């Protein structure tokens, strides 16, 4: 009996060798395995074929179905591996993309502005309906002192832009915080409107899931989602 078993084992090992199946895993390798791999599957398949009932052998369709199922699982594992690698590359790409915003200004809702590198302030405001008159005022954010104002005239529905381009040197060099106030007459007298300001991007960071947008550190406005940025200067 032992001779028969030895002969069968030798024949089985010969088949494994021809198929390139590694059956000589060390104890450490087996302990580290937490799932069946291709070699394990082929060993089980070969043993199943060798020990099947010769009077009721496995149907060709069943055999093909098992092979197809294993191929599907292997394909999914390979896709997962590739997706993880792609995720890492996307993480690096998105922070590189966000870093290109450094030194630029992005449009954020708010009323605090500072002169940009060209010594100018730019922004927009949105009107729910046409205005017969509109005005922008710039004042010192700390003292409330009025620094400059301009009549913008009639404006149509939607976004309207404003700017202050001849800012005095002492304000530009002092990098003072300037408060922006918008007023418009849409039929009910002059009413206050909320402006959006172009503010300088100080830094960019990326963390969390790859689907999350990079975060931008914007001067005077803190951290904002880069995905929420609609305009850049």
From TrEMBL:
Any one biological process term the GO annotation gives: bacterial-type flagellum organization
Xref: InterPro entries: FlgD
Keyword line: Bacterial flagellum biogenesis, Cell projection, Cilium, Flagellum
Superkingdom per UniProt: Bacteria
Known function: Required for flagellar hook formation. May act as a scaffolding protein.
Family per similarity comment: Belongs to the FlgD family.
The protein's name: Basal-body rod modification protein FlgD
Record organism: Lentibacter algarum
